[in-house]
Specification:
The chain is an all-alpha fold. The protein has 3 domains: 61 residues, Orthogonal Bundle (434 Repressor (Amino-terminal Domain)); 76 residues, no CATH class; 67 residues. The chain is built from 10 helices and no strands. Helix 2 crosses helix 3 and helix 7 packs antiparallel against helix 8. The longest helix has 24 residues. The radius of gyration is 22 Å and the shape is elongated.
C-alpha cells in the first residue's frame, strides 16, 4: 500500500468531520488498527480498501493515489472545462476576481499558442510546470488559512512546500531559458523554432484580437507592482 493511501484516508476522515474512533467503528476495525493504517505503519488488505471506498463514496484508484479525481477518472483534454463557458467563471460581488481571471486566462492563450509554435514539448512542459507551481502555492496558502481544513490533502509537509515549490519554479524557469538558447538540459529536446517569437504590440493585436489587450494590461499591472506604484 502506498503512502498516498495513508494520507488520503486521513484526509477523507477529517473532511467528513468524524473521529478516528467513529471511522474505525464504521469500517469494522479497531481504532488502533485504523491509526496504524493512517500513519502508514501497517498495510491493509484489499477488502478494507473496498470498505473505505464504499464508506467515503470514492474509487479505489483515488484511495491508492492512482487518480486525483474522487471518482477515479483519468483527466483528458476534452474533459477540462472551458473557463469562458463554465458557471464557475461568474463571480458574485466584486468584479476584481473576474477581471483578473480574464487578464490571466486570456494572456495564457497567447503564451501557450506561442509555445505550440516553438514545437518543443520539453519547453512547453517546463513553462507549464512553472505556472502550475505558482497556482499550487497560492491555492495552498488560501487553503491553509482556514484552521479546520485538513492538511493531509497535501503530501508535501507545510513547513517545506513553499521552499520546494520555489526551487522547482526556478529549475523550470532555468530549463526553459536554456532550451530557448538551444542548450541541452537533459530533457531530450534542444531544437526550438524561434521564428514565431518575433513580436510587436501591433502584431500581437492583429494576431490575437480577443486576447492581446488582456496581455498588454497584465504586463502593465505587473510592472506597476514591481516598480512600487
Amino acid at each position: 500500500m502506498t503512502q498516498e493511501f495513508s494520507r488520503i484516508i486521513t484526509l477523507l476522515r477529517k473532511e467528513k468531520g468524524i473521529t478516528q474512533k467513529q471511522a474505525a467503528a464504521e469500517l469494522g476495525v479497531s481504532q488502533a488498527l485504523l491509526s496504524h493504517y493512517e500513519k502508514g505503519i501497517r498495510e491493509c488488505g484489499l477488502d478494507f480498501v473496498v470498505r473505505v471506498a464504499d464508506f467515503y463514496g470514492v474509487s479505489c484508484d483515488y484511495l491508492l493515489g492512482r487518480s486525483a479525481d474522487r471518482s477515479g477518472l483519468t483527466l483528458k483534454v476534452e474533459d477540462i472545462p472551458n473557463p469562458e463557458t463554465t458557471r464557475d467563471s461568474i463571480y458574485k460581488g466584486s468584479l476584481l476576481p473576474t477581471l483578473n481571471k480574464k487578464l490571466i486566462s486570456n494572456s495564457l492563450n497567447i503564451l501557450f499558442d506561442k509555445l505550440g509554435s516553438c514545437q518543443n514539448k520539453a519547453l512547453t512542459s517546463e513553462v507549464s510546470s512553472y505556472l502550475m507551481l505558482a497556482v499550487y502555492k497560492m491555492f495552498r496558502t488560501l487553503y491553509g488559512a482556514a484552521p479546520k481544513n485538513a492538511s493531509s490533502m497535501f503530501s508535501i509537509p507545510k513547513e517545506v512546500y513553499a521552499g520546494y515549490a520555489l526551487a522547482e519554479q526556478c529549475r523550470a524557469e532555468s530549463n526553459a531559458a536554456a532550451l530557448l538558447a538551444g542548450q541541452d538540459v537533459g530533457l531530450g529536446e534542444t531544437d526550438c523554432d524561434l521564428s514565431s517569437l518575433a513580436m510587436t504590440t501591433e502584431a500581437l493585436s492583429a494576431d490575437y484580437p480577443l486576447y492581446a489587450t488582456s496581455l498588454l494590461n497584465l504586463i502593465k499591472v505587473s510592472e506597476s507592482r514591481m516598480s512600487g506604484e
